[in-house]
Write a structure and sequence with these properties.
Rossmann fold; globular; 207 residues; seven-stranded mixed sheet; alpha/beta
Amino acid sequence: MSKKIDLDDAYNIQTPADNVKLYAKWADSYDVDFAKSTDYILPQQVAQVVHDFSATGTVLDVGAGTGLLGQALCKLGSYDIDATDISPEMLQTAQRKNIYRRLFISDVTKGMGVGNKTYDVTASSGTFTHGHVGPEAIAELLRVTKDGGTVVISVNTAFWHKNGFEAVINEISPHVRSIEIRPVAIYGAAATGAHARDEAFIVIIQT
């Protein structure tokens, strides 16, 4: 019997091709095998921060996966949400939830094929983490966000220190209205195992 895909597999991703291959296999079972079984609350944490700054408007969900952030946003406010991800299979799962206005495939590290200053909010949960997307992609999120809008992303704290997010945030700071960083839990009280107490920073950039 083949080994069940788990978080360590995701953290060991090295390339975009690895990402596509892993999530093609994981898409159908991700919500149950990972999100539910680990008490994964990060999408709700990110959604609440988005809602704190904008209770309505257009949102781009970057690295949308199976749509967990979009689901959480829909429970909080009235949004027109688009979704993008590198994995077609994950987007197919998200599409079945009927929460997104538009879904499209993209690799955020190579550009998303979206016009400048398109969205009121650009948000991402769980994408800036081990083996996935680094701080260089923040510029692309800023590009597609309207002046006066907000970028909200989660960054795994271990990845933050390892991959130079602080330096990039310091470079951005003089060119935006404000930057706030909030530490949050990735998993809820029911989580067990080696990653149960992992944390993320939620970065809020007001453009």
